[in-house]
Amino acid sequence: MDITDVILRQHDEQRRMFAMLEEWPRDDREGLAAVWKRLEILLEVHAEAEERYFYPELLRLGTGGADAESVDEEVEDAVKDHNKIRDAVRRVADAETGSDEWWTAVVDANVHNSDHMGEEERQDLADFRQRASLELRHEIAVQFLRYEAQRWAEGITPRDKDPEDYVEGEKTDEPSEVAQQAARDAEEAATTGPVSSEPSLKASEDADED
Ligand SMILES: [Fe+2]
Ligand SMILES: [Fe+2]
């Protein structure tokens, strides 16, 4: 697994769900509410997981990708964008499903999210691919997906963060726990072969018969 690939795929799912809403029958308010609820959870859990697992590592290793001035600016921008998305999502929740106010907030969420994903892909993911080992990208993907899997059903209570405080709080030259684990995995793989001591899983004999 690779965190940069996991994030890209989830962006694709977000784009597809906004597109789905655009052509959903406007009078099916129950359906609109259900589709939006799923997208809301996807947006909020995704942003929080990035802030917990991806951006701290990018701050340690990044140098500012593409048109970003620096990694600090890259990350501050991302947190600022996440706050804008969270704000639009809250406005959707406060409006009556299917009303003009509701659609305006949905479109605002789409605009903020599209702008953000473009920048995140062009700067942050590209920067990380160039700077982080495959082992680290794998380790972060596992943590990220674990956090999300535990929250997909219910969602989370979104929390805005001050972008400068976030960067200041997370910025350190010390390797994180996950980076140290990735380094051990890489070393072990280089000297002894497979990273995991667990055997590959096998199908049952019944499944095998098909
Ligand atoms: Fe993202
Ligand atoms: Fe993001």
Automatic annotation (TrEMBL):
Q: Cite the record's Basic and acidic residues compositional bias ranges.
A: 157-174
Name the InterPro entries for this protein: Hemerythrin-like
Q: Where in this protein does the record put region Disordered?
A: 156-210
**Where is each Hemerythrin-like domain found?**
3-123
What is the protein's name according to its record?
Answer: Hemerythrin-like domain-containing protein
Organism classification, top ranks? Bacteria, Bacillati, Actinomycetota, Actinomycetes, Micrococcales
